[in-house]
Specification:
single chain; mainly alpha; 3 domains; about 70% helix
Length: about 350
Amino acid sequence: MDLLDRYLQAVKKHLPWQRQDDIIAELKANLESQLEDKEAELGRPLTALEADEWIKQLGSPIQVAAAYQPQRYLIGPAIFPTYWYVLRLATLWCTVIYSIVSAVQIFSGGIANGNEVLEAVLRLPGALITTVAWVTLIFAVIEYGITHSQTKWVPMVPPAVAWSPGNLPSFVKDPVTGKKPRSFAQAVAEAVVEFFLLVWLLLIPGHPWVLLGPGALYLQGSPFQLGPVFMQFFWCVVALSVFQLGWRCLDLARGTWQNPRQAQKNVMQVVGLIPLVLLLTVPNHAAVVLKHPALDQVRYGVTLNTINQGIYRVALIIFVIALIQTIVDFVKLGISAYRKRVGAI
């Protein structure tokens, strides 16, 4: 039954990591037995409406999963699913609001610098810790009230989640193992494409038209030219391309091209921040300079400053996005490693 599979999939998300599979297997066998008894009693399969009503009577996925949660020191199983839901929501909105406020503060002062961005990033963990502490304190008080009350409390359901079997997400059957593995031809094709991309990059200094097209002619007649930092940026990108191509070729030579490349991805994410750091830390944000500063400073000085500020802000936005994505990926990697370690115990 598709509805039952969707229901069990929703329940599994709220179960303890180390016992998810065992609990779901037991729960599935029990519910399938109940379903067979109901259909045997009726002498026919359940209709869609009857199946929906039966699933609804079982309780929301959070309520069912709460019965399998271990007792915790501050937050008990009855309200822990709600606590976890609210905690994730609060930390998400804290990150979003903090990022927006910090960006407004940084750019409202005119010229921003890398130190202000770094300080804002370093203050984020403190804001998150404060948010987590307040949410935990509130739910600890609620837990204290529950344990010292004579009233029977049922597992709480987050108010934002309207429980209805029809709202269950579609069933996804093993998305990881179901993915088609990379073939040897695909791995070789990726290496070949990266090789030609490297060749294309190496042609740019002597033949800028391969990157700029007709814009290369405009650049030659322009009073502006790229500053020395762009050559440093360029060779960093080339070094990253060589590093990634060499890693891919090593995988092909060792026969490990089918293995997940999560480590390679994480390393490339971190190293890939280096070229952006170069653009952000150039003195006076002088990414673009005048060919003849003594003659053209008065005429083109304002335009030059606007261009450099635009380049700096774009690089800053890209850096912040890349940094956040890198942090998120490392957090996911840590959670995945923890789940595997706990599951092996």
